[in-house]
Amino acid sequence: QPVFSISVEDPQKVGDPIRSFIMYTVHTSTNSPMFSKSTFSVLRRYSDFLWLYETLSQNNPGVVVPPVPEKNTFGRFDGQFVRQRRLALEKCIQKIANHPVLGKDPDLKSFLESDTFSLDVKHRSNDRGGIMASLGQTLTTPRFRETDEWFEKQKSYLDGLENQLRGLVKAIEYVARQRAALSAAAGEFAQTVEELSQSDVGQQLAQSLAGLAGVQHKVQDLQATQSEQDMITFMATADEYSRLIHSVRLAFSSRIRTYHVWKQAESDLTRIKQTHERNRASGKMVPDRMGYSLHQIAEAERRALEAKHEFNSVSKLTKSEVARFEKERIDDFKDSLHVYLEGMISRQKEVRCLFLSFLNFV
Which residues form the PX domain (predicted)? Predict the structure, then answer.
């Protein structure tokens, strides 16, 4: 399995004031034989990442494609939002590239190394519709009746998990806002104490007040740092897997599309056989046409058999992808929770040391 190390760096605002956007530099290092170089870099914008996600979902039925972060019309140039999106895009493309199936997709290769990517995408768009078009085709087909109990259980499980993750995201957002408010309050308190220390209160008290103001300014910085870390560690993981559930559902939908292809192939086979039998029974089947008619039946049987194999293969792949999803979810939550708690404990220890030092000074 080839290894990819990919970073998304240097977000830059480009374009005119009306149609401006953020451009990222995507650095890739890999030992994959698909690429002529081992290291290379390209410039990509958010819509390019979105195109890759939609295209890979369409190219690979049954595969759970790691999702890009959601669109955000307002505040998309805010510094904190850009930092969070950059990290999310980096994690997304890293997971895509190191996936055993997606890492071999030609469209990923184009995304990572093509210098004419925009032109490549334009040509591809002219050749076929996007993922929504394919989903629309699924919706117009006859109703699908699930025969595998495993998929029914997974759908119910995913509904519950999605609600839990969304609740967790909201809770962490609330905690982060409270920390930001606490940071602002500490800053206001520090400013007030600092101004008081400059008044006529005596030298010893003035020094103590100045020391307390310094401690509170540091507490302000630590709380602000913790608030941002809440967002980019634990909350980012919860948000990512909340969006990944949509990708799992897309994998389920792609399985249903292969089922309809199979059933359509069987329907075509039945129609061709019936036509053959009618012509033969009515005496319209001349000897020269008999061979051609039998060849049509053989081809229809081959297509139906291939479609059945494809459905079974996608069903098996989807189950293995859900197992991968569960394993990675546990590992990622464990890692992000460890980083989150370790950082919070470290900053709390720093606050304690600051106050102990201040008390010794006083």
Answer: 2-119
Assess if residue 127 is contained within a domain. Answer: no
Task: Check whether residue 83 and residue 197 sit in a common domain.
Answer: no
Output the pLDDT for position 38: 94
Residue 108, CB-side half-sphere exposure with 13 Å CA sphere: 29
3-state secondary structure 290-321: HHHHHHHHHHHHHHHHHHHHHHHHHHHHHHHH
One domain for residues 212 and 64: no
Question: Cα separations (Å) of 144 from 253, 258, 280?
Answer: 10, 11, 35
- Please report, in angstroms and rounded to a whole number, the separation of the first and last CA atoms in the chain: 62
For 30, phi then psi, to 5°, come to -155, 160
- Altogether, the residues listed in the chain come to a count of 362
Distance CA 362, CA 357 (A): 9
| Boundaries of domain holding 29 | 1-118
Q: How many CB atoms lie within 10 A of CB 172?
A: 20
Give 284's contacts (C-beta < 8 A, 6+ positions apart).
Answer: none
Residues 251 and 110 in one domain: no
Measured distance CA(354)–CA(352) in Å, rounded: 5
Do 228 and 349 lie in one domain? The reply is yes
Q: For the chain, what is the domain count? A: 2
Question: Which helix (H) or strand (E) element contains residue 13?
Answer: strand 4-14
Provide the token pair at 359: 């008390």
Same domain, 190 and 50: no
* pLDDT, mean of each 10-residue run, the chain (362 residues): 94 86 96 93 96 96 95 79 93 96 95 91 67 45 84 96 96 94 96 91 90 95 94 92 96 95 95 90 77 92 97 97 96 95 95 93 82
Q: 34 in a domain, yes or no?
A: yes
Name the 3-class secondary structure at 6. strand
